[in-house]
Amino acid sequence: MQTANTLKAATLGLFVMVSVSCVVDPHYYGPPVQPRPAYYSPYGYYYYPSVQVYFQYSTGFYFYPSGSIWLKSRVLPTRFRLDPRDRVHLRIESNRPYLYHHKQVKKYQSPKDHKAVPENDRHERNLLHKWHKEQQQYKKEKRFETKSGKKQKNKKHR
Q1: Contact, 153 vs 142, CB < 8 A?
Q2: What pLDDT band is residue 54 in, cutting at 50, 70 and 90?
Q3: What global pTM score does this model have?
Q4: How many CB atoms are closer than 10 A to CB 59?
Q5: 69 touches 99 (CB < 8 A)
Q6: What is the DSSP letter of 99?
Q7: What DSSP state is assigned to residue 40?
Q8: Inter-residue contact 64 to 76 (CB < 8 Å)
Q9: What b/e sequence results for 142-152 when a residue is b if at least 16 CB atoms lie within 10 Å of its CB, and e otherwise?
Q10: What single-letter DSSP state applies at residue 60?
Q11: What is the DSSP letter of 21?
């Protein structure tokens, strides 16, 4: 009888350990990785609703508000904290994404209690830099996106 109880307790303990180890904290690991285009995409942006920042990964430029105007820069001021949990992939056919900002504000809102973590910010900025370099390589290899958003490999002229 005691052996049966010990076996039940051990089984229950093992079940609890396995169950607890399978819990994933989405705030730590972030959202599922969004697929990036494997071709040059001049209209691709990442938008961060909590800080209202756009990143155009084909050019490596950030667009962010400063008072009543929008600024464009390769380096984002440190007052902005980027968080992958807050990243939205957009396709805007313009080099001035802020012209459509009123649409993004209505469509994408960050949670009221959202708080960016400095470690996530540093990691996110490094990833954005890496993705910009990938885009430059795709451009060099002439792997382009067409107006319809489909992949196209440019043919060499004879």
Answers
A1: yes
A2: very high
A3: 0.64
A4: 15
A5: no
A6: G
A7: B
A8: yes
A9: ebbbeeeeeee
A10: T
A11: H
